[in-house]
Known about the structure:
Elements: E1 26-29, H1 51-58, H2 63-74, E2 83-86, H3 93-107
Parallel strand pairs: 1-2
Helix pairs in contact: 1-3, 2-3
Amino acid sequence: MPTSRPRCPKLPTDPTGRPIPPAADRVEDVRDRLRDPAAARDILDLDGFHPRVQDIVLNTPGALELIDNLVSYAMLLAGPRSIAVGCAGGRHRACGLVQIIGQRIGDLGRETTIEHMHAHLPRVLKTAAS
Length: 130
């Protein structure tokens, strides 16, 4: 598991400027599965690399089951070459989950490469109208 922050490639977009999900063997959209940890206002300016955010993600109902499932899937002999995890902004849930999953896979002896598509971007600001 790398000790420095993983690289953050330029976010691909379609002709209208909307983000394009990465190609992956499995894509997990956690927006509806896990509550947004950014509701804890004290972590708004943190990201999923921070232990406080990872702790909140780990303690979110359903997160441990999802992590266990994705780690088991990644460890299959003919397992995936890539797994993508996405959420609303990519800074809290997705980033934290990927870091935790990558660490667990590394602890099991499999080399991992992590790429974050959104963690380096400014946080998404919600307004009353959104």
